[in-house]
Amino acid sequence: MTSLWLANRADRASAANPLVEADRSVDVVVVGAGITGLITAVLLARAGKDVLVLEAQFIGAGATGNTTAKISLLQGTKLSKIMSKQGEKTARQYVEGNREGQDWLVRHCEAHGIAVQREDAYTYAQSEKGLSSAREEYDACTAVGLAAEWVDDADVPFPFSGGVRLADQAQFDPMPLLDSLIVELDERGGRLAQGVRVQKVSNDSNGLTLNVRTTEGHEFDIAAKQCVLATGIPILDRGGFFARLKPQRSYCMAYKVPGNITRGMYISTDSPTRSVRYAPTSEGDRLIVGGAGHPVGHEKSPSSSVSELDSWAKKHYPGAMQTHYWSAQDYSPVDELPYVGPILPGHESIFVATGFDKWGMTNGPAAALALSSRILGGRMDWAEAFASWSPHELSGIPKALQTNMQVGFYLARGWVTPVTRTFNRTPEDGGVVSGPPWHLEGRAVVDGKEHRVSPVCPHLGGIVNWNDADEAWECPLHGSRFAPDGTLLEGPATRNLTPAQ
Questions:
Q1: Are 344 and 477 in a shared domain?
Q2: Residue 290 DSSP symbol
Q3: Residue 236 and residue 353 in one domain
Q4: Rieske domain: from which residue to which, for each copy (predicted)?
């Protein structure tokens, strides 16, 4: 399962710069080498900061390398949701930040010869059921000054009952961007190390100490004055961000399509969500179709929804041949706004950037601009809408309560449900958790090989479920994910599942 963007990158797992003794003490450590982390690192390096980027896996391993890569200010129904909860002023600030992030990204790509396609973006209704949501988004766009227009039809082969169009947005392949940022970081004296996972961060009067572990098993400490956690969801529980975010999994497929391919970028308002764009490749344009989203660890059989998405694509694009399949994880904030700033109020040594809600190609650069400015002693007026701690979070309390009630439900169910299954059950294929509460065991069979793990998530003790679409263990509490053998893939957890006893 490799995305269109990550395919044919054989060197992706190799370290760009092995850690040396000089890296054990730096000004700023940035954790996570996706779009947010690398732009933040480059901006700080431009200002003369001694910057070290640590990536647990490889460049673009998270959301950036598995995105649909739409660089758009029209973001589904995002703006109307912000308007309803936060009001027009905050919605304007959100758009201003995203516009600045979009402008920075496009200018950087132009300056470095990175291909960007300028296309119209659409938020559309697949049927009359979705028209009211599309109309609300149009009204929100108009209220904050976006030059959106309402259209009743579009040149597409799938159902289109009307929607919003915002002209001159952008899309691209994000990996050349990351490559260019790595080159600039190196030129400005910054360093990057892949295969280095941060396990713990402590602080005292002398600054921060980051305990890290390499893929080879070496463990040591790095001293820093400041740290930026650009990891999708913060790996530290300080601030309780895991309780203020809802992890979502969604899926994408790329197709070789005979004949004309749809131009523009589309995302539906009504369910099931359908996201469409094209991507130029050396072998011709590819159609990208996304959707089938669900809360992480909550879906009994995600593969069924993925199959439905594949059938939808082939129905509306006859002769389409799938070339790539991948999935991504995003985090929805309870108050609809990203969290960018100190991990705790007044704590100016550890910063977070999260809650982009599937729109990281503009929110990520915006977060990097806001964070680097704050670290360097400046401020962005629009950054108020991105604050990690703000009164606007009060609007998210009902949703937070609902989300955390679900967490409690899944915590209890995870410990009880396996008792109803046969003890020590081994599936013919896929994964299952079984056994009594005092001896739960996760067993997975993938490509004929059996893996046995403790199903207890090392984050907060949730019991993982099997995702049959991605062939991975997923914690339904806060979205930590693990390979069949228990190797940590992503999430707030910082350690692998333990082997079964």
A1: no
A2: E
A3: yes
A4: 447-501
